[in-house]
Amino acid sequence: MKKKVTLLLVLAFFSFELTASAQQNLTKNGAPQSKGKPISTDLFGIFFEDISYAADGGLYGELIQNRSFEYSPSDKDSWNKGSNWHSLTSWEFTTKGYGYGTISVETKSPVSPNNPHYVVLNIEEAGREGVGLTNSGYDGIVVRAGEKYNFSVFVRQLSDKSIPLEVSLQNKNGTVYGKANFSTQTNDWKKYAATITAAQSDDSAKLVIVAKIKGKLAIDVVSLFPQNTFKNRDNGLRADIAQAIADLKPKFMRFPGGCLVHGDGLGNMYRWKNTIGPVEQRVEQRSIWNYHQSVGLGFFEYFQFCEDIGAKPVPIVAAAVSCQNSGGTWRIGGTGQRALPLSEMKAYIQDVLDLIEYANGPADSKWGAKRAAAGHPKPFNLEYLGVGNEDKITPEFKERFKLIYDAVKAKYPKITLVGTVGPGPSGEDYELGWKFANQLAVPVVDEHYYEKPEWFLNHYQRYDNYDRSKSKVYVGEYASQGNTLYNALAEAVYMTSLERNGDVVRMASYAPLLARQNYTSWNPNLIYFSGTKVFPTVNYYVQQLFSVNQGDIYYSSVVSFPGRKDLRDSALAASCVRDSKTGDIILKFVNAGPAATQARADLSGFGQVNPKASCIILTGTSLAEDTFANPLNVVPETSVFLVAKSFTCDVPPYSLRVIRVKTGRDD
Ligand code: AHR
User: Fold this and answer.
1) Separation between Cα atoms, residue 315 and residue 272, nearest integer Å
2) How much is the pTM?
3) Which residues are identified as catalytic?
4) Backbone dihedral region of 376: left (phi > 0), alpha (psi from -120 to 50 degrees) or beta?
5) What is the C-alpha to C-alpha distance for residues 37 and 9, in angstroms, rounded to an integer?
6) Which of 115, 274, 301, 495 is the most exposed place for a label (fewest CB within 10 A)?
7) Whole-angstrom Cα distance, residue 419 to residue 286?
């Protein structure tokens, strides 16, 4: 991401006088009293949910909206009624140039029964420009001059003669930016593909496909991708959004949700097998977030993306119960949880086991072969699998969770299972969830909380007293309900406590990750985007600073705020970690309050240190935000910072400062 880089030579205020608390923490030879505590190497990652158009119309690179004509009235406003979505949403019947004919949506003999709707065009008179269909993408199709686009479509010729077709990218007035021609070859479904180069840039182009003579044909799965996807992959991801995610350097990625996983009723539960294989054979479905999932971004693409960005995959499967808020029952107390009949559990559990084989099995195993057929013979090295998402802890849930849990443990003992303990930081499901997790000795449980910034400041010690002999914690979803610098810094304060407790907190991910401008189902989010731009928030920079500056050893006695023993009522926090691969010592100082202060660091236990440290500071006014209008309002600034064995440094109001110190070999 763009950063304001100012190379300042910041002079630290050297001081060789140790505070009482720092003195107590040193041994005779000057090494930190504690050798440091190993902490999780998977601590900071991301949570991707297909919410707010994060997948279709977002990270997924497809430019055609409703490419398979599978949108339906139930996709949208399911609980408000009055939806106007249908098979031709985002499409227009195109009869310019005095052509005419009829259009119908049919289901009788589709490309795949999984994808039942297709369009039949009966061209009675092609006129001067042909008769066909126009797609307007997601608020227009974004094209760039000189860029190449991969077009494909399934067509079935329904009349005797071959039908010539023309596909073009046009502006809203019909100016053609690029086109390709082909003719139907068979009365069976056949995929046709072409490359179109755009002659001009346009943020709201259209794709027009027309038949040039009288005839009848069926059309389905009309697709257009930029060739320039992330890592140039087919069926790939939008490069700028994927890069913004990659720049977070997440240690893991949880997917595909969230509530999307357990679904709005049993029929809406996310089934990973529906999301792999050729896109025309995938089973599309309504999204719990009030739109549609093409599942073109499916489990293969998620695993591939994780590999591409060096993040461990953390897929989540439903615990065979639907969301307790199904049907909008959160309004009346979340009574909508439904459980799969026990008679279906054997098959459901097999699906879960097959997922592990799909990810890790040899290329000649049944499911490993499907991964290999998709172009990835090597395993994806799955280590974690989540079961359930903040479910209501009912007897039905418990029975099904245990069946899944036992089966996975028995067949794949090396997989680390992640359980779930409700939607909040406390309360009935939290208590019952933890009790149940302890009974089963679930290795990791997933806690969620969306709270005010003050909550994060006040719960800075939440994990200090967690029992280290019990389940480890995955803070799977958290956010402080805002995108101001103050919010981001409250999260930063809390994140130092996650580092401090990195022996019991295994993983943490801010949520949600992505949201398309004007299509937000949820606020705040970490990254906003439009059709053309990506807007990281201040919270994003906090996440990034922690993630790229993660360590694997935590030191409790290196940083302090002189004169302040107890930080409980303050908005101050600091941490010291070390990355044992590079040997670097990483210090973080956070001030989420209005008063400037100073912090002290004592590096005397680390042997030789390079006095020229790198320093990144994120600071501004408390309510500052990075907005669409002012996206670079608050961004990290980098400088060189001179350190000594013992030094103090300024901690300005509303700031996060990260100092990275290189150590010598004799350490
Ligand atoms: O992150 C948005 C939603 O918040 C998730 O889908 C759900 O798990 C939580 O309630």
Assistant:
1) 10
2) 0.94
3) 390
4) beta
5) 32
6) 274
7) 26
The DSSP letter of residue 11 is: P
What is the atom index within ligand 1 of the atom nearest the CA of 477?
1
For ligand 1, atom 8, which residue shows the shortest CA distance? Answer: 258
Tell me if residue 259 falls in helix, strand or coil.
helix
Write out pLDDT tens, residues 169-214. Answer: 999 999 999 999 999 999 999 999 999 999 999 999 999 999 999 9
pLDDT of residue 24: 30
For position 438, what pLDDT does the model report? 98
For the CA atoms of 145, 146, 147, 150, the dihedral, rounded to the nearest 10 degrees, stands at 110
Residues 305/242, Cβ–Cβ less than 8 Å: yes
Question: Is the CB of 390 inside a 6 Å radius of any atom of ligand 1?
Answer: yes
- The alpha carbon of residue 53 and the mean position of all alpha carbons in its chain are separated, in whole angstroms, by 11
576 C-alpha to center of ligand 1: Å? 31
- Of 436, 273, 437, give the one whose Cα is nearest residue 370: 273
Three-state SS for 300-365 is: HHHHHHHHHHCCEEEEEECCCECCCCHHHHHHHCCCCCCECCHHHHHHHHHHHHHHHHHHHCCCCC
The mean pLDDT of 571-599, rounded to a whole number, is 97
Asked if residue 278 has a cis previous peptide bond (ω within 30° of 0), the answer is no
pLDDT in tens, 328-358: 998 999 999 999 999 999 999 999 999 999 9
Q: What is the DSSP string of 482-510?
A: --SHHHHHHHHHHHHHHHHTTTTEEEEEE
* Mean pLDDT computed over 411-433: 98
Beta strands in 4-130 (DSSP E): 4-10, 13-14, 37-38, 44-47, 91-94, 100-106, 118-125
Closest CA to ligand 1's atom 4: 258
Using most ligand atoms within 8 A of CB, pick from 47, 48, 49 the residue to mutate for ligand 1: 49
* Candidate of 48, 50, 51 to mutate for ligand 1, largest count of ligand atoms within 8 Å of Cβ: 51
Say whether pLDDT at 20 is over 80.
no
Ligand 1 atom, smallest distance to 522 CA: 2
Is 584 near ligand 1, meaning CB less than 6 Å away?
no
The residue written with tokens 């705040």 in the block is 524
pLDDT, tens only, 387-396:
999 999 999 9
CA of 257 to the centre of ligand 1 (A): 7
* Closest protein CA for atom 6 of ligand 1: 258
DSSP-derived pairing of the beta strands 646-651 and 13-14: antiparallel
Q: Count of alpha carbons within 13 Å of 586, Cβ hemisphere only?
A: 24
Please give the average per-residue pLDDT across 536-545, as a whole number. Answer: 98
What is the C-alpha R_g of the chain?
Answer: 27
Section 493-504 average pLDDT: 98
Ligand 1 centroid to residue 42 C-alpha, Å: 21
- What is the CA(657)–ligand 1 centre distance, in A? 30
Cβ neighbours for 631, distance < 8 A, ≥ 6 positions apart: 533, 535, 536
The torsion of the CA quartet 35, 37, 38, 41, rounded to 10 degrees, works out to: -120
Q: Evaluate whether 609 touches 12 at the Cβ level (below 8 Å).
A: no
Selection from 589, 625, 595 nearest residue 485 by Cα: 625
What proportion of the chain, given as a percentage, has pLDDT over 70? Answer: 94
The residue whose CB lies within 8 Å of the most ligand 1 atoms, and thus the one to mutate among 261, 269, 337, 390, is 390
- Per-residue pLDDT, 29: 35
The pLDDT score that the predictor gives to residue 25 is 37
The span from the CA of 142 to the CA of 222, in Å, is 16
User: What is the pLDDT at residue 667?
Assistant: 41
Tell which atom from ligand 1 comes closest to the C-alpha of 288. Answer: 6
